[in-house]
Amino acid sequence: MAWGVAGWLVMTYIQRIGPAALAGLKARVANELKSTFASKCSREISLAETLSLPVIAAFRQRATGQKYLINPNKQSVQPDPDRDRKTGH
User: Fold this and answer.
1) What angle do CA 77, 79, 83 make, to 5 degrees?
2) Residue range 46-63: average pLDDT?
3) In sequence order, which residues have a C-beta less than 8 Å from that of residue 72 and are 6 or more positions away?
4) Domain extents in the chain
5) Which residue of 20, 32, 56, 68 lies most exposed, with the fewest beta carbons within 10 A?
């Protein structure tokens, strides 16, 4: 039985097409990695930044070219709560 969710159909398809066709598909992906299959992110954010309301509002918008990459290893820059008082703004 093949499922239509996630990668269940992919495995069935790979088994059906055989090793030669699979090698051709892998070669196509490798050759077109920086064009057809390229993905660009407009911003890289940390896990902590995903909890910021302005960031949430920004990445909830579904706009072309506005992908956010969540990097769990990125250290977030903590805002200085006294910044406005120190600078007089």
Assistant:
1) 140
2) 88
3) 46, 47
4) 1-38, 39-77
5) 20
Question: H or E element: which one contains 29?
Answer: helix 8-31
DSSP-derived letter for residue 58 is H
Non-local CB neighbours of 86 within 8 Å, separated by 6+ positions? 80
Q: Which of 48, 72, 69 is nearest to 59 (CA)?
A: 69
Distances in Å between the alpha carbon of 14 and those of 5, 6, 73?
16, 14, 34
Amino acid at position 57, single letter = A
pLDDT tens-digit series, residues 15-51: 899 999 999 999 998 998 888 877 788 889 999 999 9
Please, what is the average pLDDT of the chain?
79
Token pair for residue 22? 């699979």
Task: Tell whether pTM > 0.70.
Answer: no
